[in-house]
Design goal:
161 residues; alpha+beta; four-stranded antiparallel β-sheet; 3 helices
Length: 161
């Protein structure tokens, strides 16, 4: 378990990069110490990527961890994704679909608590949105984004409040 401080909205329990909650449209998010089960989160990502039966994944790189602020969409291997996630603390955000060239596409949204730099990009990457939906293929319905009733518990972290 890793302990980190993140902004969590007291109303909807979603993590944000600032005290502003964009769901509740209020400044209800407060800096909160949480415990992250990094091993369980990595296993969740690995299991879901494996279930897609792909070697490469389309990944939207984002400036923000709590929502898509597009930098670029690139292809990444499972190993490349695991390398990034193994070196950083991360949370799952509540984003399960993003706009891809005018249509919504299912994804697994990951907020990096420690930004990363990638060759060819000046920007610091704080979010990865791994597309789980591909044309003419099956498997995306098998992905269950772990956002149920209790967001904190479902995502393997617990508030220390």
């Amino acid at each position: 378990m890793v302990t980190r401080e993140v902004y969590i909205c007291s109303k909807c329990e979603v993590h944000w990069e600032t005290e502003n909650c964009y769901f509740c449209k209020d400044t209800t998010a407060k800096l909160t110490a949480i415990e992250i089960d990094k091993e369980a989160n990595i296993k969740f990502v690995e299991d879901n990527l494996t279930s897609l039966d792909r070697n490469e994944f389309d990944v939207l790189l984002s400036l923000d961890s709590d929502g898509p602020t597009d930098i670029d969409t690139i292809k990444m291997s499972k190993d490349e994704l695991q390398e990034i996630l193994n070196k950083r603390d991360f949370l799952f955000n509540k984003v399960s679909e993003v706009n891809d060239s005018g249509s919504m596409r299912k994804c697994l949204g990951i907020g990096l608590l420690d930004s990363c730099k990638m060759a060819g990009y000046e920007e610091e990457i704080r979010g990865l949105f791994i597309y789980t939906e591909y044309e003419h293929e099956q498997g995306s319905d098998d992905i269950k984004i772990p956002v149920v009733l209790d967001y904190c518990k479902a995502l393997n972290f617990a508030s220390n409040d």
